[in-house]
Amino acid sequence: MAERGFLKLYFHGEDAGAARQMLADAGLTTAVRGADGAASGMGDGALPSAFCRRFPGLGLRGSLHLPGERTDFFSLPGAGELASFRRLGAELRRAEAFSPLWDCDAPFLGEARPDGTVAVAAWARWDARAEVPEALDGRPVTAVGPGAFRGRGTLREVVLPDGVAEAAEDAFEDCPELIVFTDNAALARALAARGVAVRPRSGAVRLATVPYAAGVAVAGVSGEPSRLVVPAEIDGLPVLALADGALRGQAALGELILPEGLVRVGRDACFGCARLRAVALPDSVAEIGESAFQGCAALASVRLPAGLSAVASRAFYQCAELGEVDVPAGVRVIGESAFGGCGKLRRVALPEGLREIAPGAFAGCGALEDMPIPASVERLSADALPHALMPGSLLYLEPQGMLVRADVKRSFALPDGARSLADRALEGCLDLLELTLPDTLERVGDYALSGCEGLRALALPDRTTRVGRGAFLNCLRLREIRLPAGIAELPDEAFRRCLALESPALPEGLVRVGARCFEDCRSLRSLRLPDGVTEVGAHAFFRCEALESLSLPAGLEALGAGALSGCRGLREIRLNGRFRAAWRPVLEEARRAAIIAPLDPPEAFPGLWRKRVCLGYALATARGIGYAAEAEAACIAWMRAHGGAFVAEAARDAHLMHLLADHDCLSLEDVETLLERAAGPDRTEYALTLLDYRNRRFGGRTAPREGLW
Hints:
This protein is an alpha/beta fold.
């Protein structure tokens, strides 16, 4: 009986139907897939391997790929023997049987051997480089069959795995520029005797480099190596780093050996190397970049170098097979999601001296049950740890005095001696109404009380010096907050969406108000920033619709974009220092606000703001706020020159009207207009003042006109 092989046909384009009909005419039940990938019909059988060898596309694995919109056998290597569908039909009629297999993306076609191994029967591509895999369909590749690469004029390199020990006489026939890379000495001698150029496998991998410090960094690699040994030197220069993204997406890479002297593994350096099984990082490595080994799903073990000071964010994210990790003594920070999604991680040894475990560092590590947290850890996020490490959803680290997580209702008191609320410690405790903090509390972590919607009042102890980002975010009913003098920064989003917060007293030691700090605090009515504040972040008071007055300190240097956007009720802004031109777009968002500017004349402001500055001067005189002599004189001069511009405001504000009259800023026409608007018994004094002013400056009637009272 003839040795059996397999046939697989894959047709593209409009001729799929014709191909199916041709095979049906040959008396075969077939499976033919059209351009849309839909299959129709199935069949069984086998084909003599001699036929398989004569026609690429036949074999244990692979496809006859007919490109474009036509089925053209002459465009395929080795197809000259098959003149037409009719000729192919004749070949098939002589075949004993037929069995189609399906895998249109497989580049190599294999032929099963009696010993359970596979020989490469054909290569289905026209690239310049071919790297033969160690196995096809789970069977080891041990040989290159007859004519497997014959006539591939574009082929420059073929890399053979260690298991390939033989090659047919014509396996590489008519490949004039081909170099075969193999470490099998006997095979290398046999190929060389046939005139084939042979090199060791180490020469098959070419590394692209870029300058780095006093040496070079590997920036890329040719082909898809399954094993990569990075040399200590390239062209006489030491290899000091894997550059950002150097080996990203090398899906075939199973083994990586790095040299001593390497100091950095860059960001995304081995991202998505899904078959990488193990990696030993030399002790010389001092930096592992973000996402360096993210998505290395087969990575079962990793040795971290002794010189490492931090494990970067997502460095080993979703390394699903990783089982154990020993973090070296020099590491101070484990970054965000550094080991997140490592579902089989069972044990982690953390060193004394570790300071911070960032959010998500071990999230999704469902098998992790053994990870003592060192007493040196000062910052820890509740979402950094899997639930198995927080029995009963409560975790308090007594050595640090740190509450990591607690799910509480109604009232809760931190233990005596507690020094910090960890990041997200009480996040989302919707039913928490009362929180008691000990005098020893020093830090409230990022988002520590975020979403505590029932909390109405809170007093931070005097020893508290740090409030984290978003610490009170979405505390919707928080009306009162006491902030101690030692707080120097209100970080980004600290009070965002505290809808009930009205007029908090900010500590005198405050230096910075972060971005979106008071965004959507829709009950906030007035706020004075202390003299030491130098920076207000972007959108700091965005949509504070009830905010009426805001006092900015003399030392303010930066006023972020959109800081006053949406403050529709803002009527007064006090500048205790000099106006800066860079603030113009920010102040223009508060279109109705009067500007109290004791140091600057109206001419220091954009034209549209000079009236607002003079209105601010009127407010200041009513409150006894002193102005620099030059600024005061300039405001009076501008009001005299533009008195008519203030009539609408003066009709509502008696103090402003008196100020305008006292400094002779009103024309006769202005006086008449104001008198017309002064009707009513409650405006008698207002009207008499205007009449006295008119008489003094312009002469005329002294009796009031009919209808004034």
